[in-house]
Amino acid sequence: MTTTVAQHTPDATTANVTPDTPKELTNLLGLSRTQMEAFFLSIGEKKFRAAQVMKWIHQEGVDDFETMTNLSKALREKLARVAEIRGPGVVYEGTSSDGTRKWVLEVEDGSYVETVLIPAENGKRRTLCVSSQVGCSLDCSFCSTGKQGFQRNLTAAEIIGQVWVAQRSVGPRRDTANRPVTNVVMMGMGEPLLNFDNVVPAMKLMLDDNGYGLSKRRVTLSTSGVVPMLDKLGDEIDVSLAISLHAATDELRNELVPINRKYNIRALLDACHRYLAKAPENRQVTIEYTLIKDVNDQQEHAEQLAELLRELACKINLIPFNPFPNSGYEKPSRNQVMRFQQWLYDLGYNATVRMTRGDDIDAACGQLVGRVKDRTKRSARYIQSVQLDAD
Ligand code: SAH
Ligand code: SF4
């Protein structure tokens, strides 16, 4: 992967800059450790500054060089001339009755993305659901993000910026025992493997001890199955993997998850085996299975699923379909979800059910389109037609 920091010579930071010369400031927020080190070398400073500045940004939530008291005044002033720490703007912040928190963030071009923090009922986990793109190009038939089409990739700064904003607003990470965000799942808007070059540096920051210091078991990438990029992921980083399977036959999956026509179930499961072989500490993948009434929630589907997954080290997470207007699909009854879970249990799988949280602030993870507003006509029409923009 290429390092994308702007190059500054020591001279360029001081001389040759008149007040009306437009300066391009390097946003330090999205730089991984290697990129941050390259940046400091490029401005004639020592590499170890990277760790110091990363701690200020990601652990203390600082966005002002002046606050970085372990740097000399001269260095702080130099940084202010060539760099910035710019996160997304918060346009809405809400907490639901069950403690789920949601932020609507404005990114560079005026698009909005959403991030939700979901506390576990036992209080032990606080999982942040992070977006990787504005919209999505993959058009899964049951997904509201897919329906609005693809607008653009988020930058690494905009991706890690979601964690940064959440942590800043819950409180800085002063000690590891009491982290504001304990887990991150890339399950918001977008397909993370189609924004690989920005998602990977952002995930590296989540794992970095000078960043968010999360263990690889607590950082999960969810994909609908972009097989070649899955292989590339395993070469670059070791994080937990969730696969959006949703169907156990190619015939049905082609309909629900159209990328299956390019990379079918066999190819996807083979890629999962290769990923696990590269990342021995993550001994299993999570299989996500959205249960849709009368589409994939019958006993035969449970049997096909059990048979298909026989040889894969995995756990199954059942997600009751989260309805949205004009989707053409329905949510199965609670009883049907429990029946499906029991069928799997009888076939040897202890599947979990992901309950929707934060309903009253429209914050279901994987369903983060509620108030997304963007500038494209297609999306505007879609949002208008389903009136999702209403509070
Ligand atoms: N693009 C990635 C990650 C974002 S979607 C992926 O598809 O894996 C996160 C999860 O939410 C996926 O498993 C997705 O299939 C699921 N999802 C999308 N729309 C949903 C809906 N309406 N109801 C329930 N789950 C949904
Ligand atoms: Fe994109 Fe994932 Fe939605 Fe499919 S489910 S359209 S891959 S965000």
From TrEMBL:
<feature type="active site" description="S-methylcysteine intermediate">
    <location>
        <position position="365"/>
    </location>
</feature>
<dbReference type="Pfam" id="PF04055">
    <property type="entry name" value="Radical_SAM"/>
</dbReference>
<feature type="compositionally biased region" description="Polar residues">
    <location>
        <begin position="1"/>
        <end position="19"/>
    </location>
</feature>
<dbReference type="InterPro" id="IPR040072">
    <property type="entry name" value="Methyltransferase_A"/>
</dbReference>
<comment type="function">
    <text>Specifically methylates position 2 of adenine 2503 in 23S rRNA and position 2 of adenine 37 in tRNAs. m2A2503 modification seems to play a crucial role in the proofreading step occurring at the peptidyl transferase center and thus would serve to optimize ribosomal fidelity.</text>
</comment>
<dbReference type="InterPro" id="IPR013785">
    <property type="entry name" value="Aldolase_TIM"/>
</dbReference>
<keyword id="KW-0963">Cytoplasm</keyword>
<dbReference type="InterPro" id="IPR004383">
    <property type="entry name" value="rRNA_lsu_MTrfase_RlmN/Cfr"/>
</dbReference>
<keyword id="KW-1015">Disulfide bond</keyword>
<keyword id="KW-0408">Iron</keyword>
<feature type="binding site">
    <location>
        <begin position="244"/>
        <end position="246"/>
    </location>
    <ligand>
        <name>S-adenosyl-L-methionine</name>
    </ligand>
</feature>
<feature type="domain" description="Radical SAM core">
    <location>
        <begin position="122"/>
        <end position="362"/>
    </location>
</feature>
<keyword id="KW-0949">S-adenosyl-L-methionine</keyword>
<comment type="similarity">
    <text>Belongs to the radical SAM superfamily. RlmN family.</text>
</comment>
<keyword id="KW-0489">Methyltransferase</keyword>
<keyword id="KW-0004">4Fe-4S</keyword>
<feature type="binding site">
    <location>
        <begin position="190"/>
        <end position="191"/>
    </location>
    <ligand>
        <name>S-adenosyl-L-methionine</name>
    </ligand>
</feature>
<feature type="binding site">
    <location>
        <position position="140"/>
    </location>
    <ligand>
        <name>[4Fe-4S] cluster</name>
    </ligand>
</feature>
<feature type="active site" description="Proton acceptor">
    <location>
        <position position="114"/>
    </location>
</feature>
<dbReference type="GO" id="GO:0008168">
    <property type="term" value="F:methyltransferase activity"/>
</dbReference>
<dbReference type="InterPro" id="IPR058240">
    <property type="entry name" value="rSAM_sf"/>
</dbReference>
<keyword id="KW-0819">tRNA processing</keyword>
<dbReference type="GO" id="GO:0032259">
    <property type="term" value="P:methylation"/>
</dbReference>
<feature type="binding site">
    <location>
        <position position="322"/>
    </location>
    <ligand>
        <name>S-adenosyl-L-methionine</name>
    </ligand>
</feature>
<keyword id="KW-0411">Iron-sulfur</keyword>
<keyword id="KW-0479">Metal-binding</keyword>
<keyword id="KW-0808">Transferase</keyword>
<dbReference type="InterPro" id="IPR027492">
    <property type="entry name" value="RNA_MTrfase_RlmN"/>
</dbReference>
<dbReference type="InterPro" id="IPR048641">
    <property type="entry name" value="RlmN_N"/>
</dbReference>
<feature type="region of interest" description="Disordered">
    <location>
        <begin position="1"/>
        <end position="21"/>
    </location>
</feature>
<protein>
    <recommendedName>
        <fullName>Dual-specificity RNA methyltransferase RlmN</fullName>
        <ecNumber>2.1.1.192</ecNumber>
    </recommendedName>
</protein>
<dbReference type="InterPro" id="IPR007197">
    <property type="entry name" value="rSAM"/>
</dbReference>
<feature type="binding site">
    <location>
        <position position="136"/>
    </location>
    <ligand>
        <name>[4Fe-4S] cluster</name>
    </ligand>
</feature>
<keyword id="KW-0698">rRNA processing</keyword>
<feature type="binding site">
    <location>
        <position position="143"/>
    </location>
    <ligand>
        <name>[4Fe-4S] cluster</name>
    </ligand>
</feature>
<dbReference type="Pfam" id="PF21016">
    <property type="entry name" value="RlmN_N"/>
</dbReference>
<feature type="binding site">
    <location>
        <position position="222"/>
    </location>
    <ligand>
        <name>S-adenosyl-L-methionine</name>
    </ligand>
</feature>
